[in-house]
């Protein structure tokens, strides 16, 4: 193995160790480590038994990812329980967002106002309706963008 690849492997191993030891808390340190200058690889033709190397490398990556799974989900049952506990508050948050959207839209309508998101949505609706005259005209004028 070349010195550059050895250094890259060492960096990845150190990052995996940090992730196992510290979990998500290690993220910033890992990102910093991975910003290092990576080596340039040789051409495939110059590597003896490239197919075998590729297979061994792929198997090693798969195993390393399997080994890291417990760092992300140490207890799947606990994670599922936590997600179920979040369902109620998330439903409340979504209901509040929908209520705000309705009230904000009503206030804009009452004041005859549109914001940029309204203009985007109306333009999208206008261009996606099957029998829209605007869509037909733009399709004729801009065939590269809208096709014929």
Please provide a written account of the structure.
The protein starts with a helix and ends with a helix. Helix content is 76%, strand content 0%. The model has no long low-confidence stretch (mean pLDDT 85). With 148 residues, the protein is mainly alpha-helical. Helix 1 runs antiparallel to helix 2.
Distinctive features:
single chain; 148 residues; 3 domains; flat
Write the layout of secondary structure elements.
Blueprint: H1 3-22, H2 27-34, H3 50-72, H4 76-110, H5 116-128, H6 133-141, H7 143-146
Helix pairs in contact: 1-2, 1-3
User: How many strands, what sense, and barrel or not for the largest sheet?
Assistant: none
Number of domains: 3
Mean pLDDT: 85
SS content category:
mainly alpha
Shape call: flat
- Give the helix tally: 7
Span between termini: 55 Å
Oligomer: single chain
Radius of gyration, taken over Cα atoms and rounded to an integer in Å: 27 Å
Helix content range? over 70%
Low-confidence stretches: none
Short description:
With 148 residues, this protein is mainly alpha-helical. The protein contains 7 helices and no strands.
């Amino acid at each position: 193995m070349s010195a550059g690849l050895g250094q890259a492997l060492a960096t990845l191993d150190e990052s995996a160790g940090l992730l196992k030891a510290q979990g998500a808390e290690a993220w910033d340190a890992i990102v910093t480590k991975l910003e290092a200058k990576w080596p340039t690889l040789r051409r495939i033709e110059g590597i003896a038994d490239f197919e075998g190397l590729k297979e061994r490398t792929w198997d090693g990556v798969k195993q390393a990812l399997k080994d890291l799974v417990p760092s992300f989900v140490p207890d799947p049952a606990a994670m599922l329980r936590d997600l179920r506990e979040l369902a109620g508050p998330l439903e409340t948050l979504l209901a509040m967002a929908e209520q705000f959207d309705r009230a904000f839209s009503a206030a804009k309508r009452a004041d005859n106002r549109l914001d940029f998101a309204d203009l985007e949505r109306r333009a999208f609706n206008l261009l996606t309706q099957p029998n829209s005259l605007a869509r037909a005209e733009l399709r004729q004028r801009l065939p590269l963008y809208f096709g014929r």
